[in-house]
């Protein structure tokens, strides 16, 4: 591992940089940040928070992990990143309350992220709405100097 530990924006501290917008039969996550890396990370946090309140999720060092994801363009990278996070939730019940995109390589469309959280336990954690899938429908990614935002619709 040998990498320096990233600085986190903790959802437990209430520093949310995402919101939910109504969409017929689905939900649209709108996330933002000072960079595209931060906006992608906040989209992931928004997804987890929709399934269970992140304010109830602790940081268990045994659950911390790296995510390495790739795509063929910006939209497929966001889709694949969120899809990988959803897959880990679905198969391992890992809920990430901290998520930092360490690198986002636009030449190769690869992303490396570090996450921390804990395993979801029914009865101990509140159940939100299950997210079944990420979609490309109406996906938007915008980036300006010191400002980025993403819109992604998820199937619930």
TrEMBL record:
The UniProt record lists the keyword ATP-binding: no
Keyword Calcium on entry: yes
Pfam families xrefs: Archease
Domain Archease: 18-156
InterPro entries the record matches: Archease (IPR002804), Archease_dom (IPR023572), Archease_dom_sf (IPR036820)
Keywords assigned: Calcium, Metal-binding, tRNA processing
The organism's place on the tree of life at top rank: Eukaryota
Family statement drawn from the similarity comment of this UniProt entry: Belongs to the archease family.
Protein name, per record: Archease domain-containing protein
Source organism (scientific name): Coccomyxa subellipsoidea
């Amino acid at each position: 591992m040998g990498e320096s530990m990233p600085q986190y924006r903790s959802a437990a501290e209430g520093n949310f940089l995402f919101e939910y917008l109504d969409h017929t039969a689905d939900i649209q996550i709108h996330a933002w940040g000072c960079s595209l890396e931060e906006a992608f990370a906040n989209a992931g946090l928004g997804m987890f928070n929709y399934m269970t309140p992140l304010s109830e999720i602790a940081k268990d060092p045994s659950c911390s992990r790296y995510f390495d994801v790739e795509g063929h363009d910006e939209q497929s990278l966001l889709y694949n990143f969120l899809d990988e996070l959803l897959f880990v939730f679905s198969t391992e019940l890992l809920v990430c309350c901290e998520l930092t995109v360490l690198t986002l390589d636009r030449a190769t469309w690869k992303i490396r992220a570090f996450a921390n959280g804990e395993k979801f336990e029914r009865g101990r954690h509140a159940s939100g709405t299950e997210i079944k899938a990420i979609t490309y429908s109406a996906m938007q990614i915008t980036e300006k100097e010191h400002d980025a935002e993403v819109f992604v619709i998820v199937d619930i």
